[in-house]
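Sample entry (497 residues):
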Amino acid sequence: MKGNWMQPVEEETATVEAADPHRTPQVKHALRLARKLAAAGRWRKLLLTLPDIEAGGDHPDLLIERVRAAIELGDKSQIAIFTNASLSIENPKIRIKFASLLASGNEPLHAWTLLESVSAVDIDGRFLKVARRIVNSTEDEALHKAVYGVIGSDIRVVAGAPTPVEHRFPGDVGPPGPSTGNLNIVRLPGVSAGIEKKVHALWATFDETLLGDPIPYIREYNDVFVNKFGQIWSPAGYFVSSADRPMPKPISSDDVPHVKSAFSCVRGSKGYFTWLINYIPALSWCLSPETPKCTILMRKELHDLTASTLAPLGIGEDEIVAMTGTVFCERLYVGTPAMSALGRTNAYADSYGRLKHCAALQNRGDTPKRLYISRRDSLRRSMTNEAEFEARIAERGFTPVVLSQLGLLEKINLFQNAEVVIGAHGAGLSHLVFAKPGLRVVEMMPATMNQFLHMNARVCFSSLSRVYGHRHTVVLHPMNPATSAWSSDADRIADLV
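Predicted structure, serialized as tokens:
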């Protein structure tokens, strides 16, 4: 290898702060009142209370509260008014933030109106993500054409891009395991019937995918660049993967480190679910004795997270590169993660299979059969009555477990030997891939309609249960859209199993 693995690259755009340090006392007062009303779900009152736009109520922070309220109320006329007012905001990053809010609120036309006002020099990764969300949320061909007319010149996935060679997993023989998981849904009072309908529609789409018997592949690219964001492109400048980011500045292969053969684990999200469900099964390919030995390219942020995974798989530190810049690969292997292909368990014997074997060697036979996956250590989507819920669920025979306090093999053993698992929607349920078929799962899901309009990932855990044959019940809980506050009843949840 040549060059320096620590080659700097442009960092992600800093988080946009809509707040203005020069806000007047009147704006500050109005904003405090607006957020208080939003927390109570009093959207109409919020709109009536804020000062008129003509009277100074067009401050970006106040406009954000107006847009949220109008979306929640479904008030199209107000949304149009506030969108037009947002066009006067000078900071393009704030306009992109507003466009993201409108796209999430199922207002693609208004979202594009704001994005379209951003000049070419201000187009960044956030812009491209929102633009793609707009395209995915509508079938309006004219809008598709308008969006692609702007981003097409920035993401060059065109004829001339490197053509990959596809490889099957050596162990992937025979049909996949039966997809016999049973999925149910319980909608609690206060949750829109539209959310339940959306969940059923997403399940139906996933079932259609399963019927196609998807087969996992590894794609091999020759002589390409790859960077820490998962972007892959040829020396001629053609993208294999844009990762929804603007094209990197042209560079020469002589200016970056070279590696002969590498396996990429730098695509997509850097979260725990992505690591466990996308990367680990793909790694099975390069762990097979029948495939070439590869250097593992890893996002630097994932290094600590993955240490407990890679050691049992026999991957040493000298085989891992924590990506901080760009490298040139003579051969780059990339997995094609698909949850719908996880039923082909023979393909993943060298990753999932090895991990389950290593966990079984440590099993002392004392793991609880009825688990409650606590989120008391999480700041996201935390339950407001978590302590009370945890104490009551323990009285009902469930053992509360904080998974962040355990190693991976301990977590595998817990799920391998469990009969019932209760938990809120969160990455801890990723370990369903290690459970035996027939596990009973109750997933508590706080939800708002805006989330489900653009977050197909909300059914990711129930989809795992479909693939692996678990009995999975999703319990939709009402959630305050302004504060994300929600609570649950331990007795009601325990009675479902």
